[in-house]
Design goal:
By secondary structure, the protein is an alpha/beta fold. The strands form two sheets. The protein has a five-stranded mixed β-sheet. The chain has two domains: 134 residues, ATPase, nucleotide binding domain (Nucleotidyltransferase, domain 5); 170 residues, Nucleotidyltransferase, domain 5, CATH 3.30.420.40. Strand 7 and strand 8 form a beta hairpin. The protein binds zinc ion. Zinc ion binds next to loops.
Length: 321
């Protein structure tokens, strides 16, 4: 049995998942608590401690835990949460400092996208790599750029957000960030559903399995399932999404010369339906200079349900490795 353990905490606006992770990246115990029911940060830190202490009975007590890693929404480089609409706490909330005080061991806090990058580097598909980019295809498009083994944060800690790079300028879709034409507006899971709704409305003659669903309720999973059943409109939606994503990845080569891209999140699990058009478009859009080198486009190997806990724990190992 591993002698050293880390607590990995995936803090969401509603719920917080807590896991104890061994040195090999196994989540040996897990639980969750509510995030939003605590009126202030101190009460939340107390609840985190109690839950972790209970979990630590599985491994012989709290003294076996070397450090805590927390992936949190909008966390800045000082370990503070700048803002979170779901939480009634006073903002900015000094999460790292308060949890460190309660636990009495090192605490590393970073935003969720950077936590996934750390997770891939320590436990996942990018193990052993020093230069790679993770792209999370979920409700939005998140990203983490790892360059020479360091996660790029930049001057204000907001660097490395590739989801809001402009990929379309003519008749561009609006993005949740307030800008138009962002990668996120075309290649997130929500964007796949949006493409489906737009195309169904624009092509009323076109038959599709998706027509049996109420338009507003269509999800990227519905589009995936229809495509797997041979629905041509749904397949074309994946071709369209993959084309834009591959084009963007080809551009990202010029940012940090990564050895690999690691795709993560629900949509990344669509297999060849997405990966084939991504790879094809990537090759076509590369600057000729890059074409002689092989750059891998991988799908995350972290187990879905535990990936966020492992990412958070990886932050702790980096702090205390
Ligand atoms: Zn945007």
């Amino acid at each position: 049995m591993s002698e050293r353990f880390y607590a990995g905490i995936d803090m969401g606006g509603t719920n917080t998942a807590i896991g104890i992770v061994d040195e090999e990246g196994n989540v040996v115990a897990r639980c969750s608590i509510s995030t939003c029911r605590y009126g202030n940060l101190k009460d939340y830190a107390d609840a985190l401690y109690e839950a972790t202490e209970k979990l630590s009975e599985e491994i012989g007590g709290m003294e076996k835990i070397s450090a805590v890693g927390i992936g949190a929404p909008n966390a800045n480089r000082d370990g503070e949460i700048a803002c979170c609409q779901n939480l009634p706490w006073e903002m900015p909330a000094p999460l790292a400092a308060v949890v460190r005080q309660r636990f009495g061991i090192p605490v590393a806090v970073d935003n969720d996208a950077n936590a996934s990058a750390a997770g891939e580097m320590i436990y996942g598909a990018a193990r052993g790599m020093k230069n790679f980019i993770t792209i999370t295809l979920g409700t939005g498009v998140g990203s983490g750029i790892v360059c020479d083994g360091n996660i790029i944060r930049g001057h204000r800690g907001m660097g490395g957000e590739l989801g809001h790079i402009t990929v379309r300028r003519d008749n561009a879709r609006s993005c949740t960030c307030g800008k138009d034409g962002c990668l996120e507006a075309y290649c997130s899971a929500s964007a796949v559903a949006r493409t489906a709704r737009e195309w169904l409305a624009e092509n009323p003659e076109r038959e599709s399995l998706l027509r049996s669903l109420p338009s507003e309720s269509i999800t990227s999973l519905d589009v995936y399932e229809a495509a797997m059943k041979g629905d041509s409109l749904s397949k074309e939606i994946f071709d369209f999404t993959g084309e834009i994503l591959g084009e963007a990845l080809a551009d990202f080569m010029n940012i940090s010369d990564p050895e690999a891209f690691v795709l993560f999140g629900g949509l990344a699990r669509s297999g060849e339906l997405l990966m084939e058009p991504v790879r094809d478009s990537f090759r076509r859009h590369l600057m000729p200079l890059w074409r002689r080198y092989e750059t891998k486009i991988l799908v995350s190997t972290l187990p879905g349900a535990d990936a966020a806990i492992l990412g958070a724990a990886a932050l702790a190992t980096r702090k205390n490795g």
